[in-house]
Design a protein that fits this description.
263 residues, 7-stranded antiparallel β-sheet, 27% helix, alpha+beta
Length: 263
């Protein structure tokens, strides 16, 4: 666990994977550290994803460089709607790693204007069952493959000659560590992510379906791998900002309604 905490703390990007009611899934995240415990602070735009984390078992992984690692275990989920814990314990770390947070929250004035960005769901890895090495991920065509392993997700790094998105397309996969997938027809979710230099564009692509032996049969998909998205132009940046604001405020409204307005 100590090695994972060290790698997690030093990494700029990571992944959070879990088993949702409709199948395995995962998203890219900013790795944070809460007094030696791996942590993720999701904006409330991700409320639907948090709601699907019913088993409270998840995998945190780092695949952007060597060494790659994944830690699987139980997570604690805490709503910090006022942002107090996030600001006190985690904001400084995220400002260093994530330029959009630097723009929105690096001063008291910015925090007052962008309170919607400070409301977070804090997810901490409180009990670790397993830590495994993973190869480094190439953004050009590698993906994390998430599958059920009992009540916990299993994560492997895979690659493919191409990632067709058509329904019922068959994708031949190879594990990057040389092992075999030995799929038995279980649900599977393959995804990757890439970001622009300024992180204003941080895009996930995925293919979801079932895996048998070494073949993924695609049921749904979105996006495609690319090396590095170009930064937004002025209008694109403005539209993206408005979309993020709307999504975060909508998530906050739902969470506050559930809690009776308490922060």
């Amino acid at each position: 666990m100590h090695d994972f905490v060290t790698v997690w703390r030093r990494s700029t990007t990571g992944e959070l994977c879990w088993l949702a009611p409709d199948g395995p899934t995962g998203i890219p995240v900013v790795p944070l550290d809460w007094d030696g415990t791996p942590c993720v602070a999701l904006p409330l735009a991700h409320l639907d994803a948090v709601d699907s984390m019913a088993s409270r078992r998840a995998a945190l992984s780092v695949t952007g460089g060597e060494p790659g690692l994944v830690a699987i275990g139980r997570v604690d989920v805490h709503f910090d709607l006022g942002g107090e814990r996030f600001v006190e314990h985690l904001l400084e770390q995220e400002i260093i790693k994530h330029p959009p947070t630097r723009l929105r929250a690096d001063s008291l004035m910015a925090r007052r204007e962008n309170r919607w960005w400070l409301a977070r769901v804090l997810i901490t890895l409180t009990a670790v069952d397993e830590v495994r090495p993973l190869p480094a991920r190439s953004p050009g065509g590698d993906a994390l493959l998430v599958r059920p392993a009992g009540t916990a997700p299993r994560v492997d790094l895979v690659t493919a000659p191409s990632w067709p998105g058509e329904h019922e397309a068959n994708v031949e996969l190879w594990r990057r560590d040389g092992g075999s997938l030995l799929g038995e027809g279980e649900a599977a979710f393959a995804f990757g992510h890439q970001h622009s230099p300024d992180f204003e564009r941080w895009e996930r692509w995925y293919r979801a379906g079932t895996v048998r032996e070494e073949t993924l049969t695609v049921r749904t998909g979105e996006g495609a791998p690319e090396e590095e998205p170009a930064p937004f132009g002025f209008l694109g940046r403005y539209r993206n900002h408005k979309e993020v604001v709307r999504a975060c405020r909508a998530g906050i409204a739902v969470a506050e309604a559930r809690s009776g307005g308490a922060r």
